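Entry:
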Amino acid sequence: MPGDPGDIYLYQIIAARHLDSWKHLPGVGHFPVCVASVLLVFYVGQCRFFRNLLSSPFPQYLGENSFGIYLMHVTLINSIGRPLMRTLMRATRSAKDAMGFKGALAMLFWISELVTRYVDHKSVELAKWFEQKCLQKDE
């Protein structure tokens, strides 16, 4: 179990909703969860409501910057998030009253956008250039 107060709270929420009954089915294992996941992805792809929801600007923005968010979230949690949460929890005595979450989330989006723009896109451009140089025919 994690050690930080916020992580413990999140762990308790997830543990309370986890279906342990799936683990004890003899000979089945995680197969029903796998089938349900595939069916859910198929359903979301076919349902007009979910297509419209996932085609809106904010999910598209998250999809564009998902690699930058993935790269930067642990760094921001360890460098800014945990110290900020400890300070706010000492001051307010409650994780629910911590208002730094919105600021940390905005900073994550901003930094991940920079990473996407200056690292991800530039590395894709470099890979395309290198591919063209490797596939170029000598005449």
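Residues 43 and 50 are 9 Å apart (CA to CA).
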